[in-house]
Each structure stands twice: as structure tokens, then as C-alpha cells.
Amino acid sequence: MWRNISTAPFDRDIELAVIDRDGPHALVFACRRILGGWMNAETRERLDVHPTHWREWGPQQQRQTG
């Protein structure tokens, strides 16, 4: 279930939904909320994204990407 981005936690991997020039879609990798923004949970690279919603990153997403 998608949740409002304002409620996203800082302490775990999550899936983000963003709206960009191609329209709304989910990112294909786990993300982490950090002070002032977001990072790729695996590479720790800071992301330039403006997500609208989030949901838990679970086994189903891990199987699809890994």
C-alpha cells in the first residue's frame, strides 16, 4: 500500500514513487530517507528525486531487481 511521502521512515529500505517527464512510476531500487533528501540504499549515492509516495521494500521487490 502506498503512503504519503511525509510519513516515510529514516530507518529502513523503502520503495519510492516519483513523477517525472515520463509520468508516475516506482523506482526500481531500494531507497533510504536521509536528512535533506534520499539515497540509493545499496550504493549510498544521493538521489535528485522528489517522490510523492512510498511503500515497504520487501521480498517481492528484491526478487524483481536481484
Short characterization:
The protein is mainly beta and 66 residues long.
Could you explain the architecture of this structure?
By secondary structure, the protein is mainly beta. It has one domain (3-65). 11% of the residues lie in helices and 44% in strands. The chain contains 1 helix and 7 strands. It has one helix at residues 59-65; strands spanning 3-4, 14-20, 23-26, 31-34, 37-40, 46-47, 51-56. Strands 1-7-2-3 form a 4-stranded antiparallel sheet, with no helix packed on it. Strands 4-5-6 form a 3-stranded antiparallel sheet, with no helix packed on it. The chain is globular and about 25 Å long.
Helix segment count? 1
Overall geometry: globular
The radius of gyration over CA amounts to 11 Å
Percentage of residues assigned to helices: 10-25%
Strand content: 35-45%
Order of helices and strands: EEEEEEEH
Number of strands: 7
Number of domain units? 1
Give the integer mean of the pLDDT values: 91
Task: Report on the biggest sheet.
Answer: 4 strands, antiparallel
Which runs of at least 5 residues are low in confidence (pLDDT < 50)?
none
Distance linking N and C termini: 22 Å
